[in-house]
What we know:
By secondary structure, this protein is an alpha/beta fold. The chain has 10 helices and 6 strands; from the N terminus they run αβαβαβααβαββαααα. The chain has a single domain, classed as HUPs (Rossmann fold, 3-Layer(aba) Sandwich).
Amino acid sequence: MPISCHSVMASDRPQKSPLQGLSRASQRLENRLRKRVAQAIQDFSLIEAGDRILVALSGGKDSYTLFALLRQLQARAPIPFELCAVHLDQKQPGFPTAILAGYLAHENVPHTIIEQDTYRVVARVIPEGRNRCGLCSRLRRGALYEWARRHGYNKIALGHHQDDLLETFFLNLFHGGRLATMPPKLLSDDGRVVVIRPLAYCEEREIARYARAKAFPVIPCKVCGSQDRLERVAMKRMIEAWRREAPERIASIARALGQVSPSHLLDRSLWDFAGLIAQGPTDPEEHLETETGTPSFIREVESS
């Protein structure tokens, strides 16, 4: 029988040795990933004492890795917090939910499977061949938010990693005309749930290696029939090419996401450019701004 999230607390679960069955190389990889997750948790205050955390488990390599590393940190952490793996069964034709449920039960993992036919909604609204990822993601988040609120979970952990953050940054830059990415911590609109991304410092290629070493039963997502035509795939290929050509470039871009200089960009909502006035003696008659606040040189240009 599946282990209910409501009946199993963190302190009641037996913890396996995280290094059990792994080669030395895989042990080093696991240690490295776990340290990066711990660093992200510390840097962004992702987990606090008493948190009840819903870990969204899709059946992909990222969410398996996230849950495995969080369980290891839970056993070592100086503060208590609760974890529950929650999978949303979207009623996608042919999706092997039984494989995921069987794995979680075998691993003695507390979990819940929510059943909600979002696949039919997406298929009805968006024609086959079009990008369905946006709507699918919104419906999935909505279902997870509702479950978390209803059962008293204050945080939702998602498996987005460093490559996801970089891809989103470039998608916004190239196609959205703005500088933005997925934040490591986000408050829901109603203020009742906090979304966290503990894998923010982890590279996808290392997560993939770890998932293979742990033999996670990875289930690929086939909801979107146009995956190969998505802009995100182009961003992924660009980043992979850069990583091969100049690995330090990716590390530099990742660091840049945490070292923003608003005064050296063009966003007037972030920096008061109009308020930058040189200190020193000035002649009031030479001031360029009129009583209406319109700079005189603009008025002259517009009237000419």
